[in-house]
Specification:
heterodimer, A: about 325 residues, mainly alpha, flat, B: about 400 residues, two-stranded antiparallel sheet, 17 helices, 2 strands, about 0% strand
Chain lengths: ~325, ~400
Amino acid sequence: MCDDLRKLPEMQDTLEFDESLYELVGYREENTEKLTTAPYSYWKSVWKQLFKNKVAIFCIVLLLILLFFTFFGPLIHSNNITYTTDGTWIGKATFCTPNSDYWFGADINGEDIWTNIWKGAQFSLKLAVVVSLIDVVLGLIIGGFWGYIRWLDPIMIEISNVISNIPTLLIYILVLELLPKDEAWAFWNAVIVMTMFGWMGLASTMRNQIIIIRNREFNIASETLGSKPTTIIIHNLLPNLVSIIAQVVIDYIPATISSEVSLIYFGVFPVNLDSLGRELETSFKSQSIANGLSRAPNIIIFPALIMILLTISFFYFGLAVADATDPKRHR
Amino acid sequence: MNFKDLSSFFMSEKNYQTQIIISYVVIALIALAIIFIVLVNKNVIMKKNNAFRRFITHPLFYYSLKRIGSALISVFLALAITFFLLRMQDLEATYCDSGLKSKLPSIEAWNNYCASVKRSLGFGGNPIVEFLQYLYNIIPIPKKICTSINPTTAQCAEEGWGFYLMYLGYPAASDNSSGDIASTIFARLPNSFRWGALATIIQIVIGYPLGVLMAKYQDKFIDKLGKGYIILVDAIPGLLYYYIFFTLFTQLTYNHINLFPINFDPNNVQTWLAPAITSAFAGVAGIAYWVRRYMLNEINSDYVKFARAKGLSENKIMFKHVLRNAIVPLSRSLSTAFISCLFGSFFIESMYSIEGFGSYLTVAVQKKEFMIVQGVVVFSAIISVISYLIADIAMAIADPRISFSD
């Protein structure tokens, strides 16, 4: 049953209509294409979203403070001198609680924990940043090809199956045995070993996302309407991928620190290498050797605390960036 | 003939010829059965529809067969990679006793001795031949293998012939001469399974209710608390909280609070608790995360709204209706949880000095015993393949809607 169009004017008469509430502004052609709301800008929305998240801002501030001490901490205060000014040896102070000489105390070898932590953090962060940059570049390139070229898919899946069947830590150790054991090489050895399979995670995420988005209606519509491949990549794929990539990229940093700690445990790096993992290992091993925890709990607490703060602030910052860069959450 | 007679028949050396014949017949039968199943599935033979054919062409059955096939390929490749990586290592320092260098009359004699030691352990010659030999050695059929080579004649020593079902070589260190690698791993596996199983139980008992509660009170206090816990576990390095737990339990034991003794004893369940809790701390977070996620997916579906409209209590909806549907993808996580307990155990087992699978690897790496490393790779690959297969089948049984036909 349809409405009878001829009856409509009669209905209009029955409605009560206060004309004084309205004003006729006329018709302007240039206004028809204008939007009264602010135009949508992807990156502006990202910033707005990010700075709404209070925990994320707290994490950024914490990160900045930690980074400041990582680079300037050993310069502000350093105490690894075992000789006094007139040349006499004053001996090593082991198992110190915090005091004015040793701000964070001294460990079982009589080394200043304050200096060791920040020097170790320098090495670990440098390693983490270099490894994640290489992993991200490799992961993006390989994942892009993996998602786009269909015949590559079964081969890459088989490769990832094989890698997941071997404990990767073992392969790291075996490859490290083959690399030069020079101390100067320690950093690059670690980089080589950790980037060997590190790209795998990002590449497979990229592949899955590309396959999902490629088959979404909006992309099919855009392809049907004749969008260029560059337009498809920049406007359809990338905004959806940025959020995932951002999270993976920032997660690589705590993950790299974590695998560095594991490798240190197996004793495959030179002994006198300063890193956060080494600092943790010496402090925790010393507590079981001499029951150091009851004598100087700060030996364990400070390295562990710095490690926890550093990794968690990176991790949470990654989550916040992933949320903010997701276009579905904007507005 | 009972089981004991049967096993002693296969484990003894006397019936060697019969065993060889039986094992080759079994292998041939398996090969024939596989060819037969593939042909039936491809509709080449036996087109009549009966119960037997329905069983053979059942998607789950055929899928498992295909999965085993592809799994064998990836185990093979994983093995090949580690085998050739190991061959590139400098093994002389580990396997040749350098103390003998001064005792032996000449450098040639030492080289000769070194070569024979390497040959007895299965390396030092043509790597491809040795790889094929290694593959033959790990196939579980009864075989006679030469384990020591006479340095003077370069032939197999008289007493060197050993009888093995599965042979992974011997460790180099003479103090470790209790047995070959395969039997050592078999002897050590039960210890790992003991505390690994306990860790899996703890994970499930705590992780599932936590996930359900987090989904039920979404964005409330308990959800935020749980999320914080998950982030904590994900972000900080695993080894760090292993250390923290170990320190905690050590301090408790030092202070004579014997709630979680740190000295592992296979016969005392209480001593399994410390490593199990250390390992389960991360696993609980993983299970809670996935339970919460699947529950939230299910909570918005129509059948939940209907159940609520019927007037069912919120707890009944959660634990009876929603959890049952959300549990399907999670039946997979059961075996993966167990596997990650075993594989994450490299550190935990050496911390708590458990004579298990993981600590065997740690010791091997530190002593550069690469034959042990390879044995561990073989075992871990086989265990992970079997557990993933079980996980897939468990998922299919839990949910009749899942089909594996392509």
